[in-house]
Amino acid sequence: MEGSIRDLEQILAQDAHNVSFLRQLAHAYAEVGRINTAAMVMEQLYTDKPADPELERELFVSLCLAGNYQKAVKLLPLSRETGETLFYEALLRRDTGDTRRAITALRRSLSMENFRPIAWLFLGELLAESAPGEAETCFRTALRQDPELHVALLPLGKVLLAQNRYKEAYESLSRSHNYFPQQDAVIRDLNEILRRMPELGREQESPQVRRVITANPPKVKAVNSQGLALVRIGLAEGQTSITVKTGGSYILRLPGERPLFTGRAPEQLWAELRNGRLFLLDHAGKTLIIAAEPVVLEYQEPENTTLVSGFALEDRSYRGSIEFRPEKTGITLINILNIEEYLYGVIPAEMPASWPLEALKAQAIAARSYTLACLGESNRDVPRGKGFDLYGSVLSAAYRGVSGEARATTAAVDATRGMYLAAGGKPLKAYYSANHGGYSEDSRSVWGMSTFNAAVPDKLLGSRTSPLSLDELARWIRERPRSYASMPNLHSSQAYRWEKWVAAEEIRSRNAADGNYIGEILQVISRGRGISGRINEVEIRGTQGTLRIKGDRIRSRLGGLRSNLFTIRSKLGKNGKPEYFIFQGAGWGHGVGLDQSGAAGMAQAGFSAAQILRHYYPLAELR
Question: Of 337, 331, 299, which is closest to residue 318 (Cα–Cα)?
Answer without folding.
Answer: 337
